[in-house]
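Subject: Re: docking follow-up (zinc ion)

Dear J.,

Thanks for your patience while I sorted out the input files. As discussed at Tuesday's group meeting, I've set up the holo structure prediction with zinc ion included as the bound ligand rather than trying to dock it afterwards. The sequence and the ligand SMILES I used are pasted below, so you can double-check that they match what you have on your end before we go further.
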Amino acid sequence: MPISDFQVVIGLEVHAQLLTASKIFCGCSTAFGGAPNAHTCPVCLGLPGALPALNRSVVEMAVRTGLALGCEIRPKSVFARKNYFYPDLPKGYQISQYELPICEGGEVTFTLDGRDHTARLVRIHMEEDAGKNVHDVSADGSSGVDLNRAGVPLVEIVSRPDLRSAEEAVEYLKALRAILMALGVNDGNMQEGSLRCDANVSVMRKGASELGTRCEIKNMNSFRFLKQAIEFEARRQVELIEAGEPVVQETRLFDPDRGETRSMRSKEEAHDYRYFPEPDLPPVIVEAALVERLRAALPELPRAKAERYQRSLGLSAQDAGNLVADAAVSAWFDAALAAYGAGPEAAKKVANWVIGELARLANETGEAPATWKLTPARLAAVLRLIDAGTIGGPGAKQVVEEVFRTGAEPDAVVKAKGLAQVSDEGAIEAAVDKVLAANPGEVEKYRGGRKNLVGFFVGQVMKEMRGKGNPAVVNALLRRKLGD
Ligand SMILES: [Zn+2]
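The structure tokens for the complex came back this morning:
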């Protein structure tokens, strides 16, 4: 039976690190990096007798996340102990939420192939992150534990099994990431693991009503790995079923080097964790007034912003979607547009630079928009140089790259690199005359009706002028001389 006779069913559990300055139950820094165990204290080291105290910002960020995703905010939620032993968890338990999470319900809407899809959420709960095992720390190959990450606040966002392909899962995660970044609760950095995701994957025969046995794939930290892992896992399960073997419920790891998932451990059931209410923390009470204050202060969310870009700026759905995928990029776009001018024509020009050349340069350097040396005002200055005919397209590209790398002022770059476009008719006419004299055969063919040869002449004149001729003037002069 081929894979096309099966339907893959996916639910995602996304862990998002909250952008608080301090940890969830102590005052230690949440900064990434730092010497191993530099950001620790008795609470996050799990020393006996140390007592946790809840960070208020964590609750507010969790509530804002819930409001943005249309969840119901529980007025009273409870922390619970999730008991398991692992070297990076010195307490022997993780403080999480179980029966009474802070948010329930809600949904994430995303677009795939021009169609809107919605995946429902089960819940969002708050919890602490664990530490990190570091292997081969010394010459004898021993391992160490770095607890800087222990106690860093997370929200876990759990979807229902509403996703039906690897592509849907990826678009769901992209939409969720954009929302979290727009809220300022998460930095969206999947490489550093501040946003990571587990996927529950099962397959069932098309038309079946009962879900198949699922496997959970842990900790994928890129969109590409998520897609590869789901595709591999779906194929593996279909092959088992075809061979008449059962799919065993288990936790699996994705190996990016080999592009496959492999068994990690048999899947725990909730009762394996012996959850019970955390006795060292009182229930979390979220007052209605706080919820309303946070609701009123929610920023414009990515989908609303994309719609506004299309409606009031005339951008295409694709351009708008591209810009809002990263709140920092769309903020930069807004600032550049404000510096340059209003209207659809200006918006299209600015969007083209941001999505094209600037995305390429930013990708190369890995710099965030806020630290780009090409400020919004400097891009506006480049665009005005183009509008004034001072530089042409190829020159503008060179100016933008130089400003992006050095932070120099655009007009200074134009002067220093001699990129100014030549619009002087005398100079262009001399080049045109030279080209026509050197190509009598082509001139004859053109006059005989081969009008598409104009491109050849423009190219020759541009070459003669080392790319600096004003294309409009070159075109006009050529047509005049060729007798159009
Ligand atoms: Zn601490």
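A couple of observations from a first look. The pocket of zinc ion is lined by residues 23, 26, 28, 40-41, 43-44, 151 (CB under 6 Å). The longest helix spans residues 344-365.

Let me know if you'd like me to rerun anything.

Best regards,
T.
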